[in-house]
Amino acid sequence: MKNIFLYILILVSFIAKAQETFIVNGTHNNNHNAFAFTNATIHIDYQTIIENGTLVIKDGKITAVGERVEIPKNAVIQNLKGKHLYPSLIDLYSDYGITKPVKAKTHRQGPQIETTTKGAYNWNQAIKPEVEAGQLFKVDDKKAAELRKLGFGTVLTHQQDGIMRGTSALVTLSNDQAQAVMLKDNVANHLSFNKGTSTQDYPGSLMGMIALLRQTYYDVDWMFNNNTVDEYNLSLNTIIDNWQMPQIFEANDKLSILRADKIGDEFEMQYMFKGKGDEYQRIKEIKATGGKLIIPINFPKAYEVTDPYNSLKISYSDVKNWELAPFNLGIIAKNEVDFSITASDLKDKKMFFKNLRRAIKSGLSEEDALKALTYSPANFINEYERVGSLAEGKLANFIITSENLFAEKNIIHENWIKGKQHVIADYNAIDIKGNYDLNLGKKIYKLKVTGELKKLKGSIEIIGTKDSKPDTNKVSVSVSLSGNLVSLSFNPKDDFEKGTIRLSGTITNNAGIWDGNGQLSNGDWIKWSAIKGKETPSKKKDNDTTKTDSLIIPRIQYPNMAYGLDSLPKSETILITNTTVWTSEKEGILKNTDVLIENGKIAQIVAHSGGMSVGEGVLIIDGKDKHLTAGIIDEHSHIAISRGVNECTQAVTSEVSISDVINSDDINIYRQLAGGVTASHLLHGSCNPVGGQSGIIKLKWGSAPDSMKIKDTPGFIKFALGENVKRAGWGSGYGNRFPQTRMGVEQVYYDAFIRAKEYEKKWAAYAKVPEKDRKSTPAPRIDLELETLNEIINSERFISCHSYQQGEINMLMHVADSMGFVVNTFTHILEGYKVADKMKKHGAGGSTFSDWWAYKFEVNDAIPHNGAIMHKQGIVTAFNSDDAEMGRRLNQEAAKAVKYGGLSEEEAWKFVTLNPAKLLHLDDKMGSIKVGKDADVVLWTDNPLSIYAKVEKTIIEGAVYFDIEKDQATQEANKKEKARIIEKMIKAKKGGAKTQEPNSKKPKLYHCDTVGE
Amino acid sequence: MKIIIAIFCVAIGLNTFAQIETPAKKQTKKILLMNGFAHLGNGKIIENSVIAFEEGKLTIVANAKTIKLDMGRFDTVIRLEGKHVYPGIITPNSTIGITEIDAVKATRDYAELGMFKPHVRSIIAYNTESKITTTVRSNGVLLGQITPRGGRITGTSSIVQFDAWNWEDAVIKEDDGVHLNWAGMFNNRTGKENKKYAESITQLNTFFTNALAYSKDENYIEKNLRFEAMRGVFNGKKTLFIRANFVKEITEAINFSKRHKVSKMVIVGGYDSWMVADMLKENNIAVILKRVHSLPERQEDDVYLPYKLPKMLHDAGVLFCLENSGDMEAMGARNLPFYAGTATAYGIEKEAALSLITFNTAKILGIDKTCGSLEVGKDATLFISAGDALDMRTNKVTSAFIQGRLLDLDNHQEKLYRKYSKKYEE
Question: Which of these, A133, A632, A905, B413, has the minimum number of CB atoms within 10 Å of its CB?
Fold first, then answer.
């Protein structure tokens, strides 16, 4: 049997070398023999198994498979009784055989504004659709062997670099020439939210990447539809050529899957998503994308939690994710989302099956697991005709295993790729592990052999006496096996022999008996034999990272972090009775009043003495001695944003939008609810004169980003003036981006708006071209930056402009007046009090800080009376936070308008409710307590302007999002939950699981001037 | 005898003439404050009080109903009609006067180069002309511990009052303490364990061991400026302030100062100090608690934990006070009274909360013989507010005295307010 195997090995290697188009040095050595694998349990595909089946392959392809199959005469037969045959596994996410590109080192200070890529390629260095993995691919047998060991036969490989990464090639993992290994190039097109090695400054944020992708697609569309375009762009041409390919998008996390899908929707393109393993946290939304998933199988290691103080540093969400991550695949399968599994993110590839078994113990069926490793990946790239199952005509890609692929004891013996055998663990190899009685003449030693075939270890126990007491001494024995020949050497240092004994012998009787001759240290030859004894049951250590006790999925919280909810709060009918109502309407502050909330709206406001009668099922809240106000609206916030608040890289970045990068997992959403905030205007930072578009959200904790956004409301955009824009504090290296002075800022605006107007004219002219002439008339190119600026001119989008000094404030109003738009809001506007009359005339509102000053030169004249002065001049005035901490105390900040400047409490309160609602064009539905408005209300324990006021309840659209009592209960529950999981981690560690050190990394808090992700 | 009905008039009068706020002259007249609601700072109140001071010192603090007074003895009698009187608020661990505009390097004087620099003294950089100071004192914050930043040992602080011509006459207590930033066990940015932690502590141990040895010789011939500056830490003349927030760091800091025979140590920051309250008490270590208006450190922390920490430390019996270091610390010091207000909202009785920014601070800084409360014999450093000073809704400081001197409460911001209010009136 063994000889046959050796013979095959030699033959196969010959076959492999015979590429049809290659010249042969010497005589041809063709081998067209068939191979037949008999008596195997054959897993034809992920759902069909045949027992005692036969597989026949010839010339790298399967010629027959089934229970009764005729074996060709010339077939080399391999009897696989007791063994399993599986189609080999497929990984769609790999960079096998592709050299990792290296980021060019630059000595430049400051930003690189243009690309360094030479040639007729895209203007942005991170857009590289023209890269073809097929052109870059080289066989790398070391890497291939690593994957073959896991049972993989085919991978889809691409260069994992840049935002548009080009196409992938489908290659096998065979140790062969590239021409034999490559099955197809240009298989799929790859994208990501990662700039990779691009040294170009733009895009500097996630929202910038999204904008760049969108603009690129618009450019493609423009090129495709206009023959007369005078630009030859290889990158854009390639995107057109590859449009129909499967498109694989590497999303960094669950929310980025949703973000990428939106881009796809805009261009009628359905991406397939490579996820991160946290999809379970937003499975409903991910399922709704309709995208197929490629999911990694790397689970976080347990944390080192033996020190209770250090474990304080591990966040609740990390602890939760550790427990839930193994359930991810099962949850995806249960939700009937098509997915495949990738080994790509696994640093330690040995963990592949361990983790897979963990996933199976956590609810993933074996069938689904196999499907995700064979059928699905093949199908996703339209290659099921060739790979993914065992059927006639398909490639002879299969693995031979000792048992069920997912069984803990399973051994993958062989991995055949295109008919070429790769032995991983020779099933014919003689296993000499065990306990033996080693007989040397009359002397008998107890020999124990352990270890792997190539690294055998032996030991004998010498029982003697030491100081007249029985003493056991362990002596190691060097053991080596070559074919059927075994050699041993050891030094017992006992009565029998003080020197080394060396033995050589032959193994017979299925390794049960060894015998031969040996030499003692005195040179005497001796006959020896060893007879295998019974196996002693070993105390097996559980090396699996964690045993899951049951298939019950631990509680997933929304979001899956501290204070996350089990389910979203529902809108209720609520009656708040006998309370003081700050209407912020002409009714003023009403005492002893009842407010009824129904269908998410304020339904009735009546005097308590009137006695409102309500039906059953109404939640009645006693508001006696309490104050009810509209929810606070923060006009200037940077919470709940993913990967960068600033697209700092260009002076005008109106194409980017915060609404694309809303992060529903920010704990500060909850903390702000606890401070009575119900809506926030999430602004781009203040890095450039024209920043990005805003996101306006209600703080619906637990919802996905899209459900938080306020619908049917005009958009906003951030502008900025002053020191941040001219990069005052950036050091000398940053002197190369225009503008560097306030003078330059003005010109940036004129330039941008003049360009926008010309752009609009071009489109208007094009609209007039008669239908018949359209083909010969090039359409203007859609420019997202200018589109947005035109929205401003057309009053479809409004400005919130970061501003401090009066001069530049005045300047922007002049620009606006001459360009025909109004600056909706000056935000921060700390010198608003100096130009309040001009602002009033222009029609701008002001959203300022209550008492910040002196942190920059331009706020040296900031005064806390600013809000009061602006208000007195008739400007709609608000106080904002620009700060996650202050955001939850805006009620107190409003009181500073009373303290500094002497406003009435009623007016001061509007600074954080009705006035910001007005500034955001939301006052028709928010900002005050008025029948018909959204039921976004807060119940306070005291006058809301007072430092002593605390939030009891925060209600959004009739649903209670914060409740002080529930908050305490949640906190207690979180504490217990964390403790429970930590206990589990300790068990996992005891069970041999690897651990990682605690990490106290906190999400970054953004301010206006925060640069980078 | 001159009776001035409301001191408010005096303040306004000054404003009209003075272009730049000018330090007040030494108190020569005897002043009596009648019928104010006195919050003594030490936990006590006198609802209807008489408070008298001469030559800068309090001479009477008593109940108006029970005391017999010869009104004729006083040069100025001010009827407060229920207005509130408080001891001057003290801002510890502050950079007032050593920074002006945070973003402008030329105006920053708080962080000297180097890691171990106890010899670097804040007092000489203290700018009495700072525009920030006048905005801070108009909210009742009248004293501050001016503290250097940066490095392991940041330097030596001094305590000043906020109405002076130059640093010399500003001094309340010169070189009161040495400030140490305890090494973080975890990296702030990456969140990973600080691999150099042990090394940092070894450096500290070496420094302290040598400084202690040096201090045994009163007249060390080969002078070492750093070690000279450390003498006070061992002989009781200076307090060692150690900034630490994580519970293990606090514990380490306590053991460290015991080991090195530090005479008086105070924890600054102390986010986790409630977890080791017993240890703090046993070792008589006080805490200067980090800014109350801040975000919780950990995701799962009580969302209001920074607001509740005062109550927790209070209940545990730890001596502590409140501070304001961090972003915008100098100008933000005027909000110190509201931190005490928040402490009250979250469980501490009002007068006890007031102590956290007056009496306790004075005790912790070692200036309680003269400052921190309204008690006979102490400095007449106090202010008057129309309403509850701990609530921004009612805080309205109408006048303030430092060592009996009536302050000009005007400031850069008030001037601009008047200037532009006037513009719009025309």
Answer: A905
